[in-house]
Amino acid sequence: MDAKASIDYLYTRNDINHSEIIIFGRSLGGAVAIDLATREEYTNKIWCLVVENTFTSIPDMAKVLLGWRMLQYFPLVFYKNKFLSYHKVKQLRIPTLFISGMADSLVPPRMMFELHNRCSSIRKQLLQVPAGTHNETWQIQGYYHSLAMFLQSCRLKNLRPDYDIKMDNVKTESNDLWSTVQTI
């Protein structure tokens, strides 16, 4: 509800560039951001999505936090809020950056990898931060530079769809910006 109200409020303001609205969410906020970005009435209002240390679903996190054996028999109906992000990311079409703190001891980094792999956006990227923990990933050197490079590439891609920016000083599987995995 708050996320929808925030977008609606931004669209009432004339001093904001409505063509470059970025939605960011960390942990549970990432699940809310994914939900918002996949809603039909909001998907065209969002330019980019950035999620950090986000889980695949509430039931998956319950299994991680409380143990698999106890919860394996619980049907989905027992969960009030499910936040089934692993299903919703298949609907994403906007540029999406997945930031994964590889030292996250709360949300397993494999969940971010899974969300990235299931995402249907043609412009998606997984940024792996080796020393990044659940709440402090943003403090690691190179974090903001990588975020800025992703956003700049989205901006350039909008201006010239045939343009592909190359990354400097960043380890990627290839030197192409849209490579699947980047490590800082």
From TrEMBL:
<protein>
    <submittedName>
        <fullName>Uncharacterized protein</fullName>
    </submittedName>
</protein>
<dbReference type="GO" id="GO:0016020">
    <property type="term" value="C:membrane"/>
</dbReference>
<dbReference type="InterPro" id="IPR029058">
    <property type="entry name" value="AB_hydrolase_fold"/>
</dbReference>
<dbReference type="GO" id="GO:0008474">
    <property type="term" value="F:palmitoyl-(protein) hydrolase activity"/>
</dbReference>
